[in-house]
Write a structure and sequence with these properties.
single chain, 184 residues
Length: 184
């Protein structure tokens, strides 16, 4: 009985380590490539277009909000100067109005930031969609079955890096993506 059990264990062990046709068909040989996603987003013409538009729209928003904040500061200073001549009720009423205006400006600034973030996300998704199309094509053409992001600190040989090939193809396909702000 003991010999029989040892014999079965040996048979199972041999079967487990013997490559068979079914085993080799299930797991393909890894063909790995590395892509620097951050470089692709920042250096692609479409990515640069998005970043430039976001910077410009952000500067406009900041300018508008700064202008409103400066007007609030001036109104606050004027109110402080008038405090001696106003009745306490009139002063408190104007103070409340000023605080309401300040809260409105703060809400507007938050809304604008949210709109800008939403527009940035949508525009970058469009850029990333083109990047993925190109990566999928290169995978099919080159027999690549695994893409690793360079940001994961993977050490590779330069031949595994396909970032430049992806960048060239992406730039051929799309040079800009329009950043569209959502409605209020």
């Amino acid at each position: 009985m003991k010999r029989h059990a040892i014999g079965l264990i040996c048979v199972f062990a041999l079967a487990a380590f013997t490559p068979g046709p079914a085993r080799s068909q299930q797991t393909p040989t890894p063909v790995i490539a590395v892509v620097d996603w951050q470089l692709l987003v920042n250096e692609s013409l479409a990515g640069q277009s998005v970043l430039a538009q976001l910077d410009a729209k952000g500067a406009i928003f900041r300018s508008e909000i700064t202008e409103k904040e400066n007007a609030l500061r001036a109104a606050d200073q004027e109110l402080a100067n008038q405090q001696a001549v106003l009745t306490p009720e009139a002063f408190n009423e104007r103070r409340r109005e000023l605080q309401q205006r300040a809260a409105e400006v703060q809400r507007e600034a938050q809304t604008r930031r949210r709109q800008l973030d939403q527009a940035a996300g949508e525009a970058m998704r469009q850029v990333e969609a083109v990047l993925m199309e190109v990566v999928d094509e290169l995978m099919a053409e080159s027999g690549i079955n695994i893409i690793l992001p360079k940001s994961q600190g993977v050490r590779t040989v330069p031949e595994m890096e396909i970032t430049q090939r992806v960048l060239e193809r992406v730039n051929e396909r799309v040079t800009s993506v329009k950043v569209t702000l959502p409605e209020n």
